[in-house]
Each structure stands twice: as structure tokens, then as C-alpha cells.
Amino acid sequence: MAKTGVFDGDPTMITKASELKKELQRLIRAIVDNDDSNAETIDRATQTLRALKEVQCKTRVSLRKPSHDGGLLSCCPEEFRCPISGELMRDPVIVSTGQTYDRPFIQRWLKSGHLTCPRTQQVLSHTLLTPNLLIREMISQWCKSHEMQLPDPTQYSNEDGLTEADRDHFISLLEKMSSTLSEQKEAARELRLLTKRMPSFRALFSESIDAIPQLLNPLSQNRSQIDLHPELQEDLITTLLNLSIHDNNKKFVAEIPMVISLVIDALRSGTIETRSNAAATLFTLSALDSNKALIGKSGALKPLIDLLEEGHPLAMKDVASAVFNLCIIQENKARAVRDGAVGVILKKIANRIHVDELLAILAILSSNPKAVEEMGELGGVPCLLSVIRESLCPRNKENCIAILHTICFNDRTKWKEMREEETTYGTISQLAQNGTSRAKRKANGILERLDRVVNLTRTA
Questions:
Q1: Does the predicted model carry a pTM greater than 0.70?
Q2: What is the mean pLDDT of each run of 10 residues along the chain (460 residues)?
Q3: Alpha-helix runs per DSSP H in 102-163
Q4: Which of 152, 256, 279, 300 could form a Cys-Cys staple with 319, CB 3.0–4.6 A?
Q5: Phi, psi (rounded to 5 degrees) for 32
Q6: Please, what's the largest Cα pairwise distance for the chain?
């Protein structure tokens, strides 16, 4: 039977796919097994995965060039097509059900009054659209490899569904922020709802450098009187959180001088809802490394850690997420340690509060020498050993043994505790047999050191 295009039986494609899979396996092992795996290794793994995806796509689709009218459908992999339009997605976004659509088509669907997912028919829990950056990058790479020009998503700028009346209303709401208290409250509440429900309203704030200063005018003008109007502060901080979700807003929002300082004020003085949303705002903005540094320098870690110590259930998750994100860069680790993070986190873990999230923070802090020293001094060894014994989560066990490995190799006095633990419970031996690959390696490293310590003691 005649064949066209590239098929699964093509030996060249099979060989290439096999080579890529082997390379991908090697890189993933290097990332998983090596604590010092760097960004370059991760980038190579990502590139290899994309290349493998491309080879697999080529086994399923024809490599015919698109027609001169720019049609891409004839050679477009199914997963790159919008389920609504059937066309190659230019601006893929994710809805609350996890399905991906091209932005203008799902926006039209939502604006026509639908509250369900077109593909699954599930009711949407919210109408926020999250950019699918992975699919967008894969489509871009696929188009490049096929010498196709992917139209710029900005061509949809006039399809956001906003009318001139909407824009005029937006401007009038911002103007009310310099008016009476009752008008400020009314406008703040409406902006909070609009930026929650309509991504297009979030984008409007990036069109004017004065929009956010206008929005925050009530807070910046009355910083000493915020406690008199907690609901106004809550609405404005929550609006800021809604804005920060928009990818194109993250950098310019954080770099407006008043923003971070007002968010820090909210962390210290707001209602618990306001404080939680302020922490969530810092977490969202800190997706950018440049923002991590800016937020850390602004002094945000201390009020975050204070809120973590208070332990209000409504705020804990957002606070932990923000602290973790900020501590990815080295200079913020030192700031977090200086501000008391280690002691607060160990107490929460000992009380089995948000163990997963807090262990992740402790693990990332363990590259800081001062943090390791404090972990040893504040009872970190018995606390972490007890988590290993009790936890059913492999990731938590792995984080614990990795931290213990660092503590013990930096503080010889802790080997006695480790030896007693092993004699009584065999905790480390069990992990060396049944843990993740990284946990096994760390556990075996500790066991080997324990054996040497025992042998030296006998010799002496």
C-alpha cells in the first residue's frame, strides 16, 4: 500500500527516537540523582523532550508545506489544535478543568454566557484563563522546524471583548480612588470583581503607567489609617493579586515603587483575608527571578515569617508558597534565616502543620551554612527523624534525609543521635532500602559514615 509522509516504520525515525529516549533517561537520572544538577542540565532535558515530541509528531502527520494562504491545519498535530476552532492555537490558555483552548475562541465562548468547559461539559469553577506556556513553546518550536510563521498573539488584542464603554468605565473607577471614602469602597469592590472575572480587565492596567498608582491611592495617602477601613484595604490588595496573575503584569507591577511596600503593610496590619491575599500576591509576583530579589530587598520575608509563626489556617499555604519561591535565590535564604525562619518552620513541622510545604522550604534553606547550624541547635535532627518514621510520603522522607545528611556532615556532635536512632529503629537502613533514589543515596552516605565512626571508636 502506498504511503505518504513519515510513518512509524521509518527506520531513521525509530533510531532517532531511541537515541533521544536514551539521552533523556541519562539527563533525568543526572537531575534526580545529583543534588548539584544545574539549570543547564535541566534545559538540555527540556530540549531533548521537545525533540522527542517532534519526532513522534512526525510519525503521525504529513510533512506537506502549508498552502500559500497560511493554512496550518493540514500538518498540525492534534494536541496543538484548539478544540473549539480546530485551528492551530496561537495563544493557548488553560481553563479551570485543565483543558487548553486558543484564547480568543474560549473568550468568545465565555462572553456568550457559557459557564461550562466546551470539551468536558463540566461547570467551570472560575473563568480565569492561565497561559499554557509549555504548549505555546512546543507549538513555536514545531512551527520553526516546519518553516512556518506563527501569527503573533497580539493580533487578538482587538478581540478581548472590551468596548469603548468598558474602557471608559475602567477609567471612571480609577478616578473614584481619589474621591470620597464611599466612592472608593464602591469602586474598589467593583474592580476586585472585574479583575477576578475578566482577564481583559487585568490587561487594561498594563496600558497606563498611572493605573496602579491610581488604584492604590487610598492606601498610599492614608497608610496610618488603614485599620479604619479594612474592607477597602482587602479589596485593593485582592485586586492587586488578581492583576499579578496576568503574566504580562508581573514585572511592571512589582517595579512600581509603592506596590511592594503597601503589600508588606497589608501583611502586617490587614484582616487575615487581606494578609493571606498579600502573601499570595508576593508568591505570584515572585515567579520572576528579578522580582524575587526586589521583594527580598524590600523586607517582605520578616512579615511573611511572622504570619507563618501565627499559623492561621487561612494564610499558611499562601505564606509557605511565597517563602519557598523567594528562597530559591541565595540572598533571600540568608534573609529568611536572619528573620527566624528555621525556628518557626521546625516548630510547625514538630506539630505536624503543613509538613509537605515546610519541609520543602527547610530543604532549600539547607544550602545556607547558618541555616544548617540553627537546624542542629534547635532540635532539627530528632524532629526530622520522627517525620521519616511517621510519614508515608516518599518526597517528605527524601527531604528529611537530605537535610539530615547536610546537618550531620557539618556537625560531628549529631552522629551520636543518628547512631542511637539506627540502633533503636533502623530508620536510616529502611530508607536506604525503600526510599527514592536520592533518599537511598543520602541514607547510604550516612550509614557508611556511621560505620566508620563505630570502627574508629572500637580502634581507639
A1: no
A2: 35 60 76 64 74 60 35 68 85 90 85 82 81 88 78 51 75 94 95 86 84 93 67 96 88 92 94 96 94 96 97 94 95 97 98 96 96 96 96 95 94 90 94 95 93 64
A3: 103-111, 133-145
A4: 279
A5: -70, -40
A6: 87
